[in-house]
């Protein structure tokens, strides 16, 4: 329970940081705090492989990608959070957030007795990885193969997007 | 007293609901497209947490496989999204989401 409280505090503090920090770099570092908190929860729940992947892929790759883009574009100066183009936007957003959380929590509390308890997963040693690999490569192997197609499409699409179009007589429509 | 009790699945689901709502609020209030992307990551993580909590509760590894796929899709989504943001912000530095309300630049 102590682990749960500490990790939840990390998650929520990081989430608040992402929302309220004016500087995008600080927001990205708060996101790292949240991701580590979620990884701690994964370890506590016995999902050891996903905890490792969470740290490597999210905290390692995705946040570094965010920081790269922030540095590349030079948008690391703080946003002016006092500007509010729509005066009612923040109260409305708060109402939406509280309402969404309240609805979902009410549903969870109502349904908590109806969750059927299954046999607990074996999380000793490397059995979590064995079970996950067994499930992934036996039951979901087509979905797994399709993720490789998705990644190829994403990489090619990004290269096409980021390609610098040469100024020339043929590309007068693309350049402004 | 409270430190002795084991956290139940309900606690994890409530934490996940709160995290998802905070991500929603972030998407609604922030105007920097990069920070909006980070808030979408918050929402994805909330869903991942509830997947893993229910996977542990049901004793079914399928939930963890779903989280694996969510991670892959999130990585692809961030790559494409950041590519689009770079393409937009190179042309219009300092643009916020309010300046980008029209598809035609």
Describe the structure.
The complex is a heterodimer of chains A (176) and B (105). In chain A, 70% of the residues lie in helices and 0% in strands. Chain A has 176 residues and is an all-alpha fold. With 105 residues, chain B is mainly alpha-helical. Chain B has helices at residues 9-29, 33-58, 62-91. The longest helix of chain B is centred in the C-terminal third of the chain and has 30 residues, at 62-91. Chains A and B meet through α1, α2, α3, α4 and α5 of A and α1, α2 and α3 of B.
Number of strands of chain B: 0
Q: Using the CA coordinates, give the radius of gyration of chain A.
A: 22 Å
Major β-sheet annotation of chain A:
none
Provide the helix percentage of chain B. Answer: over 70%
Span between termini of chain A:
58 Å
What is the tally of helical segments of chain B?
A: 3
| SSE series of chain A | HHHHHH
Top CATH class of the domain at 1-80 in chain A: Mainly Alpha
Q: How would you state the average pLDDT of chain B, rounded?
A: 86
- The secondary-structure class of chain A comes to mainly alpha
The CATH class designation of chain B is Mainly Alpha
Topology as H/E string of chain B? HHH
